[in-house]
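B., you asked whether I could sanity-check this one before it goes into the benchmark set. Here's the sequence:
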Amino acid sequence: MYVPEHFTYDAGRLGALLHRVGAGDLVTNGPDGLEATFLPWSLDPTAGEHGVLRSHMARVNPQWHDQGPALVILHGPDDYIDPSDHEAPGQVPTWNYITMHVRGTLLAHEDPEWIIGSLGELVAAQPTGWTMAELSPERLSGMVAAIVGVELRITSITGKAKMSQNRPSSDIDALADALEARRTQDEEPRYPRPSMQAVEYLRGPSREHALAREQAVERARTAKKSGKKPGRTIG
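And here's what the prediction gave me:
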């Protein structure tokens, strides 16, 4: 995935993003070419060198046979940005988004105990209070027989947040206000309602990035006027 430096999304946010979205696309390359299945995932950050993602799929889905190199794509918030959302005129439509590509080695598990343990991890991550104990042994056994466990042993994580970091800080403020207004408007919106996570990211990391850039430009401009080389700020 191509990621300009200013759109880098910290790989350490994988757990937080997975907690918010809960699921993502498993992509493999099998005998019939590329295959993709949308699956729920649980993260064990302590397993292996970079952590492990665990899930399951229907046994009749042939993709679980595609063991080996694989990719899981997690989708964060994404929003259409209208030219009218900007502070300055003369803008063009664009799309903001957060995504994370998790590469690794895919393994399949047919052991019932492994599958039940993985199901328990997925259930425990939800706030409903429902537990596996509510299933009868017969129902659980039948369900486990119909699925296969899958595990991605992570080798690399690449995150990308194209969230208007390249815009002026004042424009980012205007975008955040526009998206928040779109979230709360009473009438049926023209576009899907933005998530609060998108608004918070604009007002947090995006704005901080823009301010740091603007301050660096101002220091360089001041140094040029004085004939001195601009200093660097650490931290």
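One thing to flag: The first strand starts at residue 8 and ends at 9. Otherwise nothing jumped out at me.
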